[in-house]
Amino acid sequence: MSSSLPAPEAEFQRTHIFALAAMISSAAAVGAGISLGLPLLSLVLEARGVSGAMIGLNTAMAGIASLVVIPFVTPLAARIGAWRLLIGALLTTGVSFYGFHIVENYWGWFPLRLVFHGSLTVAFVMSEFWINSLSPPGRRGLVMGIYATILSLGFSAGPAVLAVVGSHGPLPFAIGSVILIAAALPVLTAVSETPELEPGPRRSVIGFVFAAPVATFAALAFGAIESGGMAILPIYGLRLGLTETVAAKLVSAVALGNLLMQIPIGMLSDRIDRRDMLLACAAVGVLGALALPLVAPDFWQTALVLVVWGGVVAGLYTVGLTLLGASYSGSNLAAANAAFIMMYSVGMLIGPPAIGAGLDVFADRHSPHGAPYVMAGIFAVYLAIVLAERGWRWLAPRLGSKQGCDLGSEPSEIGAGDP
After folding, report:
1. What's the rounded Cα separation, in Å, for the pair 377 and 356?
2. In whole angstroms, what is the distance from residue 39 CA to residue 145 CA?
3. Secondary structure of residue 283 in the 3-state scheme
4. What's the chain's average pLDDT?
């Protein structure tokens, strides 16, 4: 069996399960390192007297670094091997993370951010490509749901570590560095199951954005909502009159929904058309955001809406990745995964300023509902993209056109749907 293709379920061996477990645990460790590092770096800059605007400028290098390195990931992996590139990226993140403690000059953090976040991007592209490649076709959604759940647990670990050790001195940097470097150890145990990449994908990374719009724009929508929503929801809560502690729990409600729902969503995507799943997630995204102003006066109703809403919209990431794995393999899957991460990064750049601007649309402190309206608008745009793609799929064969999206071109896989 070629390891560059998803293994037939009947041939899905125990070694594949061990390799998947290793790659998912590695990704969780990376998530823990990121969730420790991002607030830690901001707190250190704040303690050094750096302004909020300058902290934001430095943090924005994360998205820029991601966009810069993504076009080179697949060609580099094909040249040196996926496992070598992944391990090199993990070691680079660990070393560069400790560099933030050594380098005290503010401007010196900009190249460090490029190296650190660029390496993290490479690690995520390779990890998700690897997991997608090894997932059994009939249970791909389940595997991606497990991956998303474990990754969420990893992301929740970072703030817990920071709460215990604080942000002062070398210890938090040392812990983060060790976590990131240790993430390479599980990868070493899975080297024998490395997916093969033939030289050169058929399309560029940008080409895959438009070849797979339903999946890649799902990443953009989720990236915008996850980054912007997480940043703005506490402020939204404060403007609703909640205390700072209670307002922070709004983010926890979203995270709880994410944690609880990804495995059920993944399992469901193995049984029905995944484009229908993405359509449903986007529709819930619109309706849930519009419901927030209606329930806002009551914290518990708001929290309940956010649990359901947060869990379902996170399915955009889980099901989008699953849909890519059902449609591509080898270098094409690696490039498609790179396009997916790139669009997520674009969403991270778009979401916070757009949702933050929405928050300020209503000057009245008791009516800050522009933020959820903007979030509903983001989901509505994605909903229109999915509906347009589905309309084109219906229309193109009747016009005799052979052009269009590749997604779902392998309908033999459960959940892939008709081409």
Report:
1. 14
2. 26
3. helix
4. 82
Q: Tell me the C-alpha distance between 38 and 256, whole Å.
A: 20
Confidence of residue 237 (pLDDT cuts 50, 70, 90): confident
Whole-number pLDDT of residue 413: 55
- What whole-number distance in Å separates Cα of residue 312 and Cα of residue 214? 16
Q: Please say whether the beta carbons of 100 and 109 come within 8 A.
A: yes
Return the pLDDT at 409: 43
Contact 6, 133 (CB under 8 A): yes
The pLDDT value given to residue 10 = 43
Residue 411 is predicted with a pLDDT of 39
Q: What is the DSSP letter of 139?
A: G
Higher per-residue confidence, 257 vs 160: 257
Examine domains 1-198 and 201-419 and report if their fold is the same. yes
The one-character DSSP state at 328 is -
Q: Which long-range contacts (CB under 8 A, 24 or more apart) does 400-409 make?
A: 405/211, 405/212, 405/213, 405/214, 406/211, 406/212, 406/327, 406/328, 407/211, 407/212, 407/214, 407/215, 407/275, 407/323, 407/324, 407/327, 408/273, 408/274, 408/275, 408/323, 408/326, 408/327, 409/327
Total count of residues recorded for the chain:
419
Q: Which amino acid is at 272?
A: I
Is domain 1-198 in CATH 1.20.1250.20, yes or no?
yes
Least confident of 111-115, 136-140, 221-225: 136-140
Question: 401 CB contacts (<8 Å, ≥6 apart)?
Answer: none
* Cα 93 from Cα 85, distance rounded (Å): 12
At the fourth CATH level, the homologous superfamily of domain 201-419 is MFS general substrate transporter like domains (1.20.1250.20)
Domain spans, the chain: 1-198, 201-419
